[in-house]
Automatic annotation (TrEMBL):
Annotated keywords: Methyltransferase, S-adenosyl-L-methionine, Transferase
Name of the protein this chain belongs to: tRNA (guanine(9)-N(1))-methyltransferase
Domain SAM-dependent MTase TRM10-type: 61-263
EC numbers: 2.1.1.221
Broad enzyme group: transferase
Cellular-component GO terms for this entry: nucleus
Source organism (scientific name): Bursaphelenchus xylophilus (Pinewood nematode worm)
Domain of life: Eukaryota
Coiled-coil regions listed in the entry: none
Length: 278
């Protein structure tokens, strides 16, 4: 009888231990499920904000396209360096082609904007024609060689590279004599500024758009990116707007996506001579 009682007692202990393990596993699974639901909620929130931002940009773009052609105060020379295209995957290359299509829309709208494409390979040109209607009929200068191969002599000193790199000096003024080089890069990995490295290697100056100088960061709770890397067409439009208005706050507020968390506020003391961070 004692053996039976001992066996029953041991069985009861085993059952209790199994229950404890089962509850621990349930708790662990519950935490994992909660974490998964939390991250899914964040993901859906970001997707919703991006959709809202795209809708806002489309509406603004259509409104601007309906407006009359704008004459810039001075000629604005832009060079798109497509030498990075071979380093991108198919998705990034497709985004790049679409951004070039939007730049052509700006070219038609802003009188005085002169855009040239450098390093345009036959393969990428063919890809652009498949993605962007009428790409082969766009009336802008294209070169299959780099800017350094095409531009010679003292004109090379006019090349100014634009980069999102935080270490670069802010671009506060524009000159009709300069050629502003924008790297044709769509980088979803965020590995860094290849344009600045190229500028440093070639001995040219590099500047960034003065986003930090003319904005403040949103301190309210939200999934802000605070990412200063803009699409090519957004950079070109910011330059056009500044050329037209001489006001970085207005220019940047128009093109910088709301999801970045940068807030641009107009006040009498906010000018290129008195940026906010100084």
């Amino acid at each position: 009888m004692l053996d039976v009682e001992r066996i029953l007692a041991e069985f009861a202990e085993i059952t209790v231990e199994e229950d404890r393990c089962s509850k621990k596993n349930e708790n662990r699974l519950s935490k994992q499920e909660k974490a998964a639901r939390y991250f899914e909620k964040i993901k859906q929130s970001r997707l919703a904000k991006r959709a809202e931002e795209r809708k806002r940009q489309r509406t603004a773009r259509k409104r601007r396209n309906r407006e009359e052609k704008i004459v810039l105060k001075e000629e604005l020379n832009i060079a798109i360096d497509l030498g990075f295209e071979v380093q991108m995957n198919k998705k990034e290359s497709t985004h790049l082609a679409r951004q070039l299509g939007r730049i052509w829309g700006l070219q038609k709208r802003y009188q005085g904007l002169k855009t040239q494409l450098f390093g345009l390979t036959p393969d990428f040109s063919e890809n652009c024609q498949k993605i962007v209607t009428g790409f082969d009929k766009f009336d802008w200068k294209t070169h299959d060689k780099t800017a350094h191969d095409v531009i010679r002599g003292s004109d090379l000193d006019k090349l100014i590279y634009l980069t999102p790199d935080a270490d670069a000096e802010p671009l506060l003024e524009l000159s009709k004599d300069n050629i502003y080089v924008i790297g044709g890069i769509v980088d979803e990995t965020g590995v860094g500024s290849r344009t600045k490295m190229k500028a440093d290697t070639s001995g040219h100056k590099s500047y960034r758009l003065p986003i930090s100088e003319f904005s403040r960061r949103n301190t309210e709770k939200g999934n802000w990116t605070f990412n200063q890397m803009l699409a090519l067409n957004q950079v070109v439009e910011a330059l056009c707007l500044f050329s037209q208005t001489s006001d970085w706050t207005t220019a940047l507020a128009t093109v910088v996506p709301a999801r970045t968390g940068f807030i641009f506020e107009k006040d009498d003391q906010n000018s290129e001579e008195n940026p906010k961070n100084e």
